[in-house]
Design brief:
globular, seven-stranded mixed sheet, 7 helices, 32% helix, alpha/beta, Rossmann fold
Length: 200
């Protein structure tokens, strides 16, 4: 079972686990860099949790997910249609002020991630902002029925710097909101980066 099939099979369970997670600090870090009424691509929208928030703030949101079942649930949750499209099949060019890729590139192998990130950056307008987050670590392979690629600060910076037309605005580690009080080992941490497209 690949990652898309996993989400199709476990869509309701995943929706319930993620739809109410508080992402306010991350939303604020992202939206503080966007113009009023900005166009946002929610890349790998999952439950539609983040899109619902962005819509409530008056942003023009496009939801996209490779899982058909997650698209259905996100559409119900937000009242807006989600595009059922793989990242490989994206063909946007200079369209969005912002791209929100929260835990959505985590399933891309290192051998393919440069091409996917290039497509995402291409979809941004010049000066557009992208947020992306990953599990913290060195692991790559099958975990919990899905393919995961983890990143540390160095490997995430290297990934970003291989894109010729972006600048790194911020990179931070944060604890998984679902982790318990005593869960301080690195497997319970995420790393996220915010980048800006500098030119075509």
């Amino acid at each position: 079972m690949d990652s898309i099939e996993y989400y199709n099979k476990h869509a309701n369970e995943y929706f319930q686990k993620t739809v109410d997670i508080d992402m306010q600090d991350h939303w604020d870090a992202f939206t503080s860099l966007l113009p009023e009424g900005a166009s946002i691509l929610d890349l790998g929208c999952g439950s539609g949790r983040d899109s619902a928030y962005f819509l409530s703030c008056g942003y023009d949101v496009t939801m996209l997910d490779a899982s058909y079942e997650m698209c259905n649930l996100a559409s119900i949750h937000t009242g807006q249609e989600a595009l059922n499209l793989s990242y490989e099949d994206m063909e946007f060019h200079n369209v969005f002020d912002g791209i929100w890729a929260c835990a959505s590139l985590v399933h891309i192998p290192r051998s393919k991630v440069d091409g996917i990130l290039h497509k995402a950056v291409r979809a941004l307008k010049v000066n557009g902002i992208m947020y992306m987050s990953f599990h913290y670590g060195d692991f790559e392979g099958i975990r919990d029925g899905r393919y995961f690629t983890d990143y540390r600060g160095r490997t995430l910076r290297e990934l970003i710097m291989r894109q010729a037309n972006v600048e790194l605005i911020d990179i931070q580690m944060c604890k998984d909101s679902k982790a318990g009080e005593g869960d301080d080992d690195k497997e319970h941490y995420w790393i996220y980066a915010i980048i800006r497209k500098t030119h075509e």
